[in-house]
Specification:
heterodimer, A: 253 residues, alpha+beta, five-stranded mixed sheet, 9 helices, 7 strands, elongated, B: 584 residues, alpha/beta, globular
Chain lengths: 253, 584
């Protein structure tokens, strides 16, 4: 940071408000908060809640970028508010809104129930034809086999990718980036035998094919998961399966 | 009022709760299971655990050795029968989690990799890079999705246990999205809601760690055990309190004072070697390292920072490749939250409140003194951690004792009649109480200043070193805060996702936990592990080889009793780090 830049004493946050019992339409409240170079957006929201207006509602928990609770739009960009310095958005005002694409329950709190259902739909868990008894020890998995899926296992379910996804905003039936990445996380795991089951859901119209490969999901992911890459790989393997089934109808079933 | 009925109900959806839920279903697939959590399960604080989970699997290791490290690390306050069960089931639980998809780090041949950890003589810590808790939590959560009998109640805040006929038979909870008060009947309830580190201002704990489950049990007449034992982790980032995992030292990191000197050698923790030596120096136990920091700071050899004294954690000599492979999250956290790159810079660190050894008094099956009520994980105290938990035992503990509590609750629930209709009246009472005492409250006191005053008093009086005067001052302040809490007012009277109401309910829990910590700390007039009394500096096995039990009296004041520790094979001895026991 350049030394000639002087830091302001305060910064203004314009915060999206919606209390369904009070307002029929969302409004914005403006709050002036002290500026500290070590403060994240979340610290400023906590200042508002503790000292200015206790009725502001938002989610947060870990404040270290791992619980996935505090995703919001800051000046229109989906971010984790616990991992975004106020400094990066100076001089302000900084506009804080709930993530796009989710019904707003109240203020900055969105309803993520749809994602929770999709995680179940895609069977984001390890599937085995036969489970090995614990007494027989671990499944062997080499570091390079681990590396095949590790990136997709880093998803914190923060929903930034859904918020950024233009397809999901228009077609809420689309399974969406994180759930597809998590399905792929298991498909690529050497211990898993459930890829075919998952393909049934994912190859439907609203599964992977809705994705137009805009790549916004990968851009905003705070954990480097690359959902767009997961979707692309899925499309390739689904297409291969389709052609295989045309050429070798008996072997694909 | 709405009511639903389940067989077994979990309060909390972190590692212990999810493991318990699966254990119920595996024990008896016919039972319906409810997971009730104030956050979505994957937001739980298990996910913040970094370093690893202990389980003896290496050929040179043994259950005996894991038990000895745990018991000596806990300053002989562990119940040794519980530790024996724990170390035996630990590897099985870790393998089970492997079968459920946990991405454990591996050796080149595909077997599980292990790393050393503080206070452990042998490398027995399983890890998933340095996001072990995160991967365990998500593997457990995703696995629960395949069990149809498990129903989730996400973002429901439990405010009361329903007790009738000497038996816990359910809970009352608020659905946050709607503000609706919901009665959930159950034949057995397992509390797995985590610790209460937020009684202190500077903590690694998430904002949600407010001791709610401890308070629920305490109000139902169940004692809290060993609450005076609060663990300070020696390496937190200043200002944020973000944890820098012990794995950073296990992989070879050094702790340096302002002169660049590895000061732990001056505190009977061994002699410095270039490579990490187990049970020595930076791999000593957390209590001793945090205490050494205080002494070093008092001697003027720490480094001043805007957020108090710090020392330096130096991992530069590991090199970029090793750091990125073994502890990438350490680098990510330092870059993002401290603006230092540990590949090139030293990391400023200071001790930070991390874990509560104490909690709801349970037996070795997770059962409490109240029929039908079980507890597991940080909220509970079995006690395997004694006066000082060893790093990487808590992730394993939530698996072993989560599973045990789940199995025990499943068996208990299957033999119980349907919950009593008399409980509806209790639930309606609770709904009225929530409305009049909190939702409609318009008194002059505000939640944030009260919380901050309590936290400051706890840090001043019940920190790393304590004495009667400081503890009594803290009691007085906390009592004052509790009294003013009766005159609380809310800005927010909405029913819809009222997070101010949540904060007020959480403060109520925190005040109970703070009182229990202080009274237990006053009653234990000795020094042991994480409980160091400057006015009683010695360990006193004659009087205090015993667990404290704090009960809530009818007038709300805590009452402390003691019960003996269970000793099986390991008679109390000296805790020796960095030198041979034979040198003593």
């Amino acid at each position: 940071m350049s030394e000639t830049l002087t830091m302001p004493e305060t910064v203004t946050l314009e915060v999206f408000r919606y209390r369904p019992e009070v307002e029929s339409e969302p409004t914005f409240d403006s709050f002036e908060v002290p500026f500290h170079p070590e403060w994240m957006i979340l610290d400023a929201l906590n200042y508002i809640k503790d000292d200015l207006d206790g009725s502001l509602s938002y989610r947060w928990a870990c404040r270290m970028g791992v619980c996935g609770s505090c995703g919001m739009l800051a000046n229109g960009q989906p971010v984790l508010t616990c991992a975004t310095y106020l400094e990066s958005l100076l001089p302000g005002p900084i506009r804080i809104e709930p993530l796009e694409g989710f019904p707003v329950i109240r203020d900055l709190v969105g309803d993520i129930g749809d994602f929770m259902n999709k995680l179940s739909d895609v069977k984001a868990w390890l599937i085995r034809d036969e489970e090995k008894p614990v007494e027989d020890g671990e499944y062997l998995q080499t570091p390079s086999q681990l590396a095949d899926y590790k990136q997709y296992s880093m998803c914190i379910n923060c929903m930034l990718c859904y918020s950024a996804c233009p397809v999901y905003r228009l077609e809420p039936e689309f399974i969406g980036p994180a759930a597809i990445a998590l399905a792929q996380r298991y498909n690529l795991d050497s211990r898993d035998e459930g890829a075919e089951e998952r393909m049934d859901v994912l190859s439907q119209h609203d599964g992977i094919w809705g994705c137009t490969l805009v790549g916004e999901c990968t851009e905003v992911c705070p954990k480097g998961v690359d959902p767009a890459g997961a979707i692309q790989r899925y499309k390739v393997s689904a297409t291969m399966d389709y052609f295989k089934s045309l050429l070798m109808p008996r072997s694909s079933s | 009022m709405d009511s639903v009925t389940h067989d077994v109900l979990l309060v909390g959806g972190g590692g212990a709760g999810l493991r318990a839920a699966i254990a119920v279903s595996e024990t008896n697939p016919g039972l319906s299971v409810a997971v009730v959590s104030k956050v979505y399960p994957m937001r739980s604080h298990t996910g913040a655990a970094e370093g690893g989970a202990a389980g003896a699997v290496r050929p040179e290791d043994s259950l005996e050795a894991h038990a000895y490290d745990t018991i000596s690390g806990g300053a002989w306050l562990c119940d040794q029968d519980a530790v024996e069960a724990f170390v035996e089931e630990a590897p099985k639980e870790l393998i089970q989690l492997e079968h459920w998809g946990c991405p454990w780090s591996r050796q080149p041949d595909g077997h599980i990799a292990t790393r050393p950890f503080g206070g452990m003589k042998i490398e027995r810590t399983w890890y998933a890079a340095d996001k072990t808790g995160f991967h365990m939590l998500h593997a457990l959560f995703q696995t629960t999705l395949r069990y149809p009998p498990i129903t989730r109640y996400d973002e429901f805040f439990v405010t009361r246990l329903l007790v009738d006929d000497g038996r816990c038979q359910g809970v009352v909870a608020i659905e946050l999205a709607s503000g609706r008060v919901q009665t959930l009947f159950a034949k057995a309830v397992i509390v797995c809601s985590g610790g209460g580190g937020k009684v202190f201002p500077f903590t690694t704990n998430a904002n949600i760690k407010t001791g709610d489950g401890m308070a629920l049990a305490y109000h139902a007449g169940v004692p809290l055990k060993d609450m005076e034992f609060v663990q300070y982790h020696p390496t937190g980032l200043p200002f944020t309190g973000i944890l820098i995992t012990e794995a950073a030292r296990a992989e070879g990191g050094w702790l340096l004072n302002k002169d660049g000197y590895r000061y732990l050698q001056d505190y009977d923790l061994g002699t410095p070697e270039p490579k990490p030596v187990k049970r020595s120096m930076e791999l000593g136990p957390r209590d001793r390292l945090s205490q050494a920091f205080v002494k070093e700071s008092q001697a003027g050899r720490a480094v001043s920072s805007p957020y108090g004294d710090v020392v330096h954690l130096d991992i530069r000599h590991l090199g970029e490749a090793e750091i990125d492979k073994k502890i990438p999250f350490v680098r990510e956290l330092c870059l993002k939250y401290q603006k230092v790159d540990p590949v090139h810079d030293m990391i400023p660190v200071r001790p930070v409140v991390h874990y509560m050894m104490g909690g709801i008094d349970t037996d070795i099956q997770g059962a409490t003194a109240l029929d039908g009520l079980y507890a597991a994980g940080e909220v509970a105290c079995v006690n395997i951690n004694g006066a000082n938990r060893l790093g990487s035992n808590s992730l394993t503990e939530l698996l072993v004792f989560g599973a045990r509590a789940g199995r025990a609750a499943a068996q208990f629930a299957a033999a119980q009649p349907a919950p009593s209709a008399a409980l509806i009246a209790q639930a309606e009472d609770e709904e009225r109480r929530l409305k009049t005492e909190f939702l409609d409250a318009s008194g002059p006191e505000r939640v944030a200043p009260l919380r901050k005053e309590m936290q400051a008093a706890m840090e001043a009086g019940a920190g790393i070193y304590r004495n009667a005067e400081g503890l009594n001052d803290a009691v007085e302040t906390v009592n004052g805060v509790r009294e003013r809490f009766q005159r609380i007012g809310l800005d927010d009277h909405s029913r819809t996702f009222n997070t101010e109401l949540v904060s007020v309910l959480e403060l109520s829990s925190l005040l109970d936990v703070a009182g229990a910590v202080l009274d237990s700390a006053l009653a234990r007039t000795e020094s042991r592990g994480a409980h160091q009394r400057t006015d009683y500096p010695d360990r006193d096995d004659d009087e205090f080889l015993a667990h404290s039990l704090v009960y809530r009296s009818d007038d709300g004041a805590p009452r402390v009793e003691f019960k003996p520790v269970t000793v099986t094979k390991w008679p109390p001895g000296e805790r020796v780090y960095g030198r041979k026991a034979s040198d003593v």
